[in-house]
Amino acid sequence: MKEIFEWNRVLFNELPGVFLLEVIFRSAVMFTVLLLTLKLAGKRGVKQLSIFETVIVIALGSAAGDPMFYEDVGIVPAIIVFAVIMILYRTVTWLTGKSKKFEEFIEGKTECLIQDGKFSLSSFKKETLAQDEFFSELRVKSIEHLGQIKHAFIEPSGEVSVFYYEDKEVGYGLPILPALFTKKNKNIPTDGTYSCTFCGHTEKQKTGTATCKICQKDEWVASINTLRIT
């Protein structure tokens, strides 16, 4: 039976000293894996915390938890993990301050999702953000249609920031209220102002079918030009 407070076991779990080098290697590898995994998950996967901050929280939480519960995990290796993580943290922080490209890779950068009431398709495709999810974010901000929006950005934190048109500048736009958006159709029933459901491009259309000159899609919904209620 093992003795309580057998210090060699408590501190090192009877591991050879050379294993501490392996701990450093394991820590660096797992830190990188966590960083890349959360990077691939996209901004929305780690909303509010940056990807880098989330990696630090997960890594430190794991390093702190294991030696608390598992007899076969020594305290000293866990402390080394902490030290390696903090060194990596300081290194990455220093590099982000020195290189704008590295900072954008680690933290992400602000992307414009809506420009002048229409989707910025090139930016929207980069983000792991479904149209329904984005519309939900806008409805929470009391937005009824894209014609009310001058610019909308997704920030590195995953938050969506919106800049509005003044009431006198609000034009027709793609409705995002479910009751209206679900009336989309490839056949335009009557002459009027319609919005492309894919890119938000808005123009007058005649009865029949039409192809959007921006994205080449052919699904439309009647536009609205209501003002925001604040």
From TrEMBL:
<keyword id="KW-1003">Cell membrane</keyword>
<keyword id="KW-0812">Transmembrane</keyword>
<feature type="transmembrane region" description="Helical">
    <location>
        <begin position="15"/>
        <end position="38"/>
    </location>
</feature>
<dbReference type="Pfam" id="PF04239">
    <property type="entry name" value="DUF421"/>
</dbReference>
<keyword id="KW-0472">Membrane</keyword>
<dbReference type="InterPro" id="IPR007353">
    <property type="entry name" value="DUF421"/>
</dbReference>
<keyword id="KW-1133">Transmembrane helix</keyword>
<dbReference type="InterPro" id="IPR023090">
    <property type="entry name" value="UPF0702_alpha/beta_dom_sf"/>
</dbReference>
<feature type="domain" description="YetF C-terminal">
    <location>
        <begin position="98"/>
        <end position="168"/>
    </location>
</feature>
<comment type="similarity">
    <text>Belongs to the UPF0702 family.</text>
</comment>
<dbReference type="GO" id="GO:0005886">
    <property type="term" value="C:plasma membrane"/>
</dbReference>
<protein>
    <submittedName>
        <fullName>DUF421 domain-containing protein</fullName>
    </submittedName>
</protein>
<feature type="transmembrane region" description="Helical">
    <location>
        <begin position="50"/>
        <end position="69"/>
    </location>
</feature>
<feature type="transmembrane region" description="Helical">
    <location>
        <begin position="75"/>
        <end position="92"/>
    </location>
</feature>
